[in-house]
Here is the input.
Amino acid sequence: MSSYDPKPEDRFTFGLWTVGNTGRDPFGVEVRKALTPVQIVHLLAEVGAWGVNLHDNDLVPIDATPAERDRIVADFKRALADTGLVVPMATTNLFGDPAFKDGAFTANDPQVRAYALHKTLRAIDLGVELGAKVYVFWGGREGTETDSSKSPAEALKHFREALNFLCEYTRDQGYDLKFALEAKPNEPRSNIYLPTTGAMLGFIETLDYPEMVGVNPEVAHEHMAGLNFTHAVAQAWDAGKLFHIDLNDQLFGRYDQDFRFGAEMIKQAFYLVKFLEDVGYNGSRHFDAHAYRTEGAEGVKDFARGCMRTYLILKEKAARFNQDPDIQALLQAIHADDGLLGWLAGGYSRDKAQRLKGWDFDRGALGRRDLRYEKLDQLTIELLLGVR
Here is the structure.
């Protein structure tokens, strides 16, 4: 077994909708045979994944009878038991059905908003039944094409009320469950509310139970907005709100491509993996991506293995970065501290402020300092290219 073969402690997960993607897009029909949830579980076990995640209707069709629901769930549980896969995260499809064409929690129609709650309550029950500890909310239709149609302030009020209701329900049921909000700037709607991870973090603080709610940042969604994904993840981590993460790849400014992790922007993927490993993130590493439309059944397995293999390769590269003597010597010089301002440690005091105001800085010397970032970046590139 190579060092790039996944192990349970890597906590790699895929959604039913990822390896189960049939290759359909807005311009073409399916190119791959649809797989049942049970087949997907066995496929993921074959490639070495640790877990499988799901929307409610990925598993149970929206129009299933109670008897059909129970049979499907029982078959799925049996597959989990047979393979050892777990379900760490679940979510609700509040975007696919025509009822949600104007949003779910932010729809203008109060009956739609109530139906969205109804559907989510049942889906939360299902997720908990399957063992999920994190519940994700992606508001795929929570937005507008024309701002004539609704007030964004009123829409956010409705969204807040829905999340408060669901938090209360979760507490009342005694569920061990955290919520994670997933941002996206657009698609399928022209504009989606709370379009970035930073916007979600600000919104969370307005909820009744902010301690229950964090974020699920996704590579592709921040790249769609042209943002640095690692910085968004770091902000979430710093706030204690990185409850889950979606890994894939995406060129800046494109439609939601959902490529295999590391398929396009390898340097950005490296910095992300290095950050997660350096800070000791121990949550799921969930791959929310899908195989190219060119692929058949074996290509889907290649895709899934590739996501995990690339992460593990970059994890090894991150360890080499942290041990490389030339890189570490440069970093030590860059972060050198002569200790002259050590008295500033510990935060503000009136005496420190007065002393700082009187300090004589050599502004010219500060400006002349050579930071050697060019060499540091080149060494990073050489490490990634395999020549170090």
Notes: Residues 8-315 form a domain with the TIM Barrel fold (CATH 3.20.20.150). The chain has two domains: 8-315, 325-384.
